Amino acid sequence: MSEKINANQDNDRQITLVDEQGNEELFEILFTFTSEDYGKSYVLLYPAAVSDDDDVEVQAFSYDADADGGVTSSDLHEITDDDEWNMVQGVLNTFLSDDRLSGE
């Protein structure tokens, strides 16, 4: 996926990502968090078109929000550092294993 993002005005928990070929895919925002260690904010997304029985592939990006908290097309960044990715994976694993956080 490219770094192009379109916020869905009707549901602020959904984001449309556009790949390099111009294909759009709607994603749900699983959660966001900020890491003091890396000084960045992160968003974790999953495809909106999955059923409850499907395995879900979660995608993670760091992002830069404007002063109002909005995110624009150039604000998503791929995570390329292995240590940073391991930190994000650890936060996701904690989220998924804690019923109070994941809502299960």
UniProtKB/TrEMBL annotation:
* Entries under InterPro entries matching the protein: UPF0473
Per the record, a Pfam family?
A: DUF1292
The source's domain of life comes to: Bacteria
Family, according to the entry, reads as follows: Belongs to the UPF0473 family.
Q: Which HAMAP family match?
A: UPF0473 (MF_01448)
**NCBIfam families, per the entry:** PRK13678.1-4
What protein name applies here? UPF0473 protein CBF53_09695
Species this protein is from? Lactobacillus taiwanensis
